[in-house]
User: What shape does this take?
Amino acid sequence: MIALGLDGYREGWVAVLLDGTRQELSFHRDIADALSRPFDKAGIDIPIGMPDEGERSCDLLARIMLRPHASRVFTGARRWLWRDFIDPADANEEALRRGQKRVSRQLWHLGAKISEVDAFVRTNASRNICEVHPELVFLRLNGNKPLPSKKTEEGDMVRRGLLKRQGVANIDKWLDTARIGHGAKRDDVLDACAVAIAIRNPAGCLPEGKPPFDECGLPMQIWF
Assistant: This one.
């Protein structure tokens, strides 16, 4: 099976392809280009499926699983936030008017990526694309023991070791040389690898079973 894992960064998308012994790292300006290559199943570290109000159950379940690091999951993605507003203050004013939770600054800045993926999956419903959260993947690869922050040297080392155990043989080269000049950070590459592993060998999903769907028919479910 050709498994493709994607993680967004400022300049575009990191893609990791796993196909048996074939392992490839690539960088793309937009999601359409990243998903233009042949694959059987792809995973993306970005919300897919968004309600108009409230929080997604998959995000709340992921936060519970990741305790004491629940903040590694951003909640509150709603399609209207970025469809109707270009300023977070105005979006938050509307959220309060609707009796909803305000959008965090971190989530707001993911809006362009979220909207890009949302438009793509809605017009490519036949393609096998799902949402994956890398921190859930690393948690299960680490025997469900909480990991230090990926931004720390220790967190980087632990995640790199976990990927090597999963057969990602080129991870040192990818981190130390291959990503240089593309604008991707070390944790962007680590996360894309984790997404690809979850696609290749999924352990579960949140919520389990048949997922809830948003008004556009997209599933609100996170795999790991």
Notes: The first helix runs from residue 31 to 34. The chain has one domain: 1-224. The two ends are 17 Å apart (CA to CA).
